[in-house]
Amino acid sequence: MDMTRRLPDAVTPPPSDAAVCAAAALERQMDALGLSPEERLFLRTLHQSERQINDAFDEARQSGDLQQQVSRVYKQMYRPD
Predict the structure, then answer these.
(1) How far apart are the first and last CA of the chain?
(2) In this structure, are residues 77 and 63 in contact, taking their beta carbons and an 8 Å threshold?
(3) pLDDT digits (tens, 9 = 90+) for 3-54
(4) What was the pLDDT predicted at 39?
(5) Is 35 in contact with 27 (CB distance < 8 Å)?
(6) Are 44 and 22 in contact (CB under 8 A)?
């Protein structure tokens, strides 16, 4: 899987100030830990994926059917039995 691919800018909203601050904090933490470029890329991609899942989950709370689907997937990913 190519983890460097991004969604087109037309689909990806611009980052909020909070997101920019969170990204800067993540970069400082990775720098302090002395992570390799590969490890940094992995963590950036993971962080972005988590944000996307959380955004989808928040949006799903507003409509019943989608909420059930996202909740099921979220639980499968983060709370395996």
Answers:
(1) 26
(2) no
(3) 555 545 445 567 778 878 888 888 899 999 999 999 999 998 998 888 888 8
(4) 93
(5) no
(6) no
Q: Which H/E stretch holds residue 77?
A: helix 64-78
d(CA 46, CA 79): 17
Angle between helices 64-78 and 37-60 (to 10 degrees): 150
34: left (phi over 0), alpha (psi -120 to 50) or beta: left
**Cα(42)–Cα(35) distance, rounded to whole angstroms?**
10
Instruction: Record the tokens describing residue 15, joined without a space.
Output: 């980052």
**Residue 1's pLDDT band (cuts 50, 70, 90):** very low
Give the tokens for residue 35.
Answer: 């992570």
| 47 three-class SS | helix
Of 44, 80, 74, 34, which Cα lies nearest the Cα of 56? 74
